[in-house]
């Protein structure tokens, strides 16, 4: 599954960059995120519960940041497992200045495997798009100084 989109966040690029690298901001913004912890400057561990149609699964996984170009962007790669299957993916995240604040563009490539893929296949992409929208709506508020 591939997702490509962009969102305008009404704060300066440096502030968006800092928020994208703050585990507490990410925990507040990722729908279903139970916990996220920094393991190193480029690695985080997270637990996220996701509902896709009739299937609900809690994933525990690792996220790695690479190709860091502060405050312009990075590549994020992750994988997670649950009792229902697994998920892997990567995203290119790019930040650029616009008059309204910061444009955040992303290209995601993700795969879901196991029982969850077979039981919830038709719900995976719509759910991913919905969760992405929820993340960026919340992220824009939190990066701007509001609480989730």
Overview of the structural elements:
By secondary structure, this protein is of the alpha+beta class. It has one domain: START domain (Alpha-D-Glucose-1,6-Bisphosphate, Chain A, domain 4, 2-Layer Sandwich), CATH 3.30.530.
Keywords:
alpha+beta; 4 helices
Q: Layout of helices and strands, plus pairs?
A:
Elements: E1 2-9, H1 13-20, H2 23-29, E2 33-38, E3 43-52, E4 55-69, E5 73-82, E6 85-98, E7 101-113, H3 115-119, H4 121-143
Antiparallel strand pairs: 1-7, 2-3, 3-4, 4-5, 5-6, 6-7
Question: Total strand count, please?
Answer: 7
Helix content: 25-40%
Order of helices and strands: EHHEEEEEEHH
The CATH superfamily bears the name START domain
What structural category characterises the helix and strand content? Answer: alpha+beta
The CATH architecture can be given as 2-Layer Sandwich
The structural domain count equals 1
Summed up, the helix count is: 4
Strand order of the largest sheet: 1-7-6-5-4-3-2
The biggest sheet, with number of strands, parallel, antiparallel or mixed sense and barrel status, is: 7 strands, antiparallel
């Amino acid at each position: 599954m591939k997702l490509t989109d962009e969102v305008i966040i009404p704060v300066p690029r440096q502030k968006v960059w800092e928020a994208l690298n703050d585990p507490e901001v990410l925990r507040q913004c990722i729908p279903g995120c139970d916990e996220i912890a920094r393991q190193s400057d480029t690695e985080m561990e997270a637990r996220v519960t996701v509902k896709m149609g009739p299937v609900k699964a809690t994933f525990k996984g690792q996220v790695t940041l690479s190709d860091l170009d502060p405050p312009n962007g990075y590549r994020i790669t992750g994988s997670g497992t649950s009792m229902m299957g697994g998920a892997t993916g990567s995203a290119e995240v790019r930040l650029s200045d616009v008059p309204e604040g910061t444009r955040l563009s992303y290209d995601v490539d993700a795969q879901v495997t196991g029982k969850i893929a077979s039981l919830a296949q038709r719900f995976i992409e719509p759910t991913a798009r919905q969760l992405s929208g929820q993340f960026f709506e919340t992220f824009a508020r939190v990066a701007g100084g509001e609480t989730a």
